Amino acid sequence: MGLMNLVKAALVLTVVVIAMGAYTRLADAGLGCPDWQGAMAS
User: Fold this and answer.
1) Which of 14, 22, 28, 29 places its Cα 20 to 30 Å from the Cα of 3?
2) Are 24 and 30 in contact (CB under 8 A)?
3) CA 21, CA 27: separation in Å to the nearest integer?
């Protein structure tokens, strides 16, 4: 029974990671610094 709980937890976490990635992509939150090399230059 322990293995099934581990598989279920892994499945839930995988779906959460995919959902958060989709949200980040759709909300353009990943574009806070589109030119990171230029932004990091001093």
Assistant:
1) 22
2) yes
3) 10
